[in-house]
Amino acid sequence: MHEKKGNDDKMLLKNSKDIQTAETGARLQYRPRRLRLNPALRGMVRETELNPRDFILPLFIRPGIKQKIEIRSMPGVFQWSSDLLAAEAEKIYAAGIPGVILFGIPSEKDAIGSENFSPDGVVHQAIRVLKNAVPDLVVMTDVCMCEYTDHGHCGVLNVGAPLPHPNLPEGYVLNDETLDILGKVVVSHAQAGADILAPSGMIDGMVGAIRQALDNHGFEHLPVLSYSVKYASGFYGPFRDAAESPPKFGDRKSHQMDPANAREALREVAIDIQEGADMLMVKPALPYLDILRSVRDRFPDYPLAAYNVSGEYSMIKAASANGWLDERTVTLEALTAIKRAGADFILTYHAMDAARWLSEGR
Ligand code: PBG
């Protein structure tokens, strides 16, 4: 083993005439630093460029009027009441950001999340205000049950005596029963004026079920952005504060993916494409750039989104508030990395700040 390594090293030296030092008097053949000499040169050879068009801003909607409540664990992110959204929509659109994704905090929660498919639900009102104020702003809705259920889970639960499914654990999120409700949810969002439906619950068959529900109600023109690859991640912690949606018991590991798995992500994507997904998503973003890259390579002809989640945002905010990181530098670096890894667009709470920094120039 040792001897072989020694030989390899010798070979390497013999073959590397180009790596000679100034001491030898020879010239270097390769000098990558030539192209880093000044900002203009660096700009010419830059491979990845962020643009406000790359961002989708998540918005949390709460009931009431004149409510703008900052989320403790996400400085700079607010829960909004719908009446304030018209002005906000103008600002977002003026910043060059093409769209938003809505999360609702309903006034009342129940076992099946009824407010998520009631025509006057908190998200439905918000959709109407936003589309009315800025018709060109793309309004996506997150399609899941967890913010709307009193138990905080993403679907209908296996509960009651006797259990509806005695062979499944008590409290298990029932798959096909949940699909029926997701169908009602998307139709109600579409009727309120949503432009894109984004199912996020990692329920098997969710893309096919909502595609069919949309088609059956004359919404065959509306695209589905599937949270195809969503991991059971600790990085959603601050979001659960923001959306008031932590599960009351247990966790989401029986539907969201195990962070240890990469090949499984490609299967999830393949199934979503078969079911009719128009666009794909990987979530979270930064700890899963390898997954983003492999989905981009394996399915190059589908638009791919990445969700730069709440915990990723809060880490940067907290470290910057302490003076440990420079917020602007690391935010733009993180977003560039997500795009470089293969994302066509990024759902990010940094959207407004990043758009402003980009317009000011680096
Ligand atoms: C589910 C949903 C979640 C997020 C987006 N959609 C929470 C979850 O799965 O627990 C997390 C987003 C974030 O952390 O920023 N409705």
Describe how the helices and strands are arranged.
Layout: H1 2-15, H2 39-44, E1 55-62, E2 68-71, E3 74-81, H3 85-94, E4 99-104, H4 122-133, E5 138-143, E6 156-157, E7 173-174, H5 175-192, E8 196-199, H6 206-216, E9 225-230, H7 237-242, H8 263-275, E10 279-283, H9 289-298, E11 304-308, H10 310-321, H11 327-340, E12 345-348, H12 351-360
Parallel strand pairs: 1-3, 1-4, 1-12, 4-5, 5-8, 9-10, 10-11, 11-12
Antiparallel strand pairs: 2-3, 6-7
The structure holds ligand PBG.
Unreliable sequence segments: 1-7
Number of self-contained structural domains? 1
Helix content: 25-40%
- Assigned CATH superfamily: Aldolase class I
Ions, cofactors and other bound molecules: ligand PBG
Which structural class should the secondary elements be placed in?
alpha/beta
| Order of SSEs | HHEEEHEHEEEHEHEHHEHEHHEH
Structure annotation, total helices: 12
Number of β-strand runs: 12
Distance between the termini: 50 Å
**CATH architecture descriptor text:** Alpha-Beta Barrel
In the CATH scheme, what's the topology name?
TIM Barrel
| Beta-strand residue percentage | 15-25%
Mean pLDDT: 93
Rounded Rg: 24 Å
